[in-house]
């Protein structure tokens, strides 16, 4: 494999013979030579290529406009220009693919809104290149985090018949013809099937066999909320642990976030600098503060009291028993705690059937981690391991015992306390990159009305 631009820029010494391929970002001509800045997406920067006007290949230079793909052979030498250690003195230059003056990324400074309309080209920009390098490294770091702690990675199914969150926000998967009068039994799976909203239920089966597992995959929600934090297709990290209670679950969740912030500092330093300069001036400082500050926790009941006493006029009323809205979550994280905060023990009535009932009879062992600027990033709970309690909760939610009999078996045979959580991968990326819209941290975002590219 030929070295990437990032590899060449990190060279320790000059080299008489190197080859680089990439896309031309800028071209400048002087009498004696032309300068091409060539980037290949491997890092934030491009490498400067100098093409001497006396070289036979210099006749090609005039065709090379921004966006063209080239391959250059030459010598890696110390660059006299400031701000770059190395440049390439070209010997051979080949044009792999021309780009003409209609290439949409001629200049810098396009708005995210415009760039979303050219989602197939936007990874070539500095901003999206940075965001998607961070996305890739974070994904790898998540696998490392769980692997180092003895978790097994389980591929839970993408097509499922059970609505884990019970919110009825599922996309149907069917081979039945539209408009035809057919019965669900005639469908491909012999019953209605959907795209999963969470791998948790299947994750529980594996945790109750292999101890500590996690799943990290795409999840789908047909909620019609057109916000900057919701996507119809997003990725979720879901650890599930047998012999684990809410306390240990919250500790792992908090450590998970810290670990990924550390990765941002240690493995994405160039991107962090760029994002702090151009996307969110407070980013580096906010991440640093989050790392330095110990995680804080509040019970839901305490959180409601704080919100009530705040004297703040909220759009949605604050009342014990009501769900916390984004404005409430953001007040708690941004103004009250000024950092991440974990809220636990939520009212039973507003949470899904699988959460463990607390002894007070009105709350469940649930937790949400809230972040400044984001709101909820993690939702999790200890699971109800007692058969009678679980059956009662399922009846209340109107769930069929037959459909969930496999899930009930986990309580019938060797039931153990267990807990887990789900972290929204895109919300995490928004937090570590400072990017404000979820559409800009997903390679090709799916939101209501949009499934482009
Ligand atoms: O709180 P949620 O709905 O929890 C679950 O699905 C549990 N079954 C997870 C578990 O315990 N294994 O979703 C978890 C997280 C949220 O905190 C949020 O970060 C993210 O998933 N999320 C979304 N991200 C982007 N777009 C959406 N529409 C999202 N819905 C949830
Ligand atoms: Mg939630």
Defining key terms:
binds magnesium ion, OB fold (Dihydrolipoamide Acetyltransferase, E2P), BirA Bifunctional Protein, domain 2, 12 helices, alpha+beta, five-stranded mixed β-barrel
Task: Tell me what you see in this structure.
- An 8-stranded mixed beta sheet has the order 6-10-11-16-15-14-13-12, sandwiched between helices.
- The protein has helices at residues 5-9, 112-116, 126-148, 200-210, 246-267, 269-278, 283-292, 300-309, 326-337, 387-396, 405-412, 425-433, and strands at 15-29, 33-39, 47-52, 69-78, 86-97, 152-153, 159-160, 172-173, 193-195, 212-220, 233-242, 296-299, 341-347, 363-371, 375-382, 418-424.
- It folds into 2 domains: 5-97, Beta Barrel (OB fold (Dihydrolipoamide Acetyltransferase, E2P)), CATH 2.40.50.140; 122-440, BirA Bifunctional Protein, domain 2, CATH 3.30.930.
- The two termini are 30 Å apart.
- The chain is 30% helix and 25% strand.
- It contains 12 helices and 16 strands.
- By secondary structure, it is an alpha+beta fold.
- The longest helix has 23 residues, at 126-148.
The number of domains: 2
Distance between the termini: 30 Å
Question: Which series of helices and strands comes N to C?
Answer: HEEEEEHHEEEEHEEHHHEHHEEEHHEH
How many beta-strand elements?
A: 16
Strand composition percent: 15-25%
Strand order of the largest sheet: 6-10-11-16-15-14-13-12
Q: What is the CA-based Rg, rounded?
A: 26 Å
From the spread of the alpha carbons, the general shape counts as: elongated
Q: Which CATH architecture of the largest domain is right?
A: 2-Layer Sandwich
Query: Whole-number average pLDDT?
Result: 95
Give the ligands present: 4-amino-1,4-dioxobutan-2-aminium adenosine-5'-monophosphate, magnesium ion
Biggest beta-sheet profile: 8 strands, mixed
CATH fold naming of the largest domain: BirA Bifunctional Protein, domain 2
Continuous helix count: 12
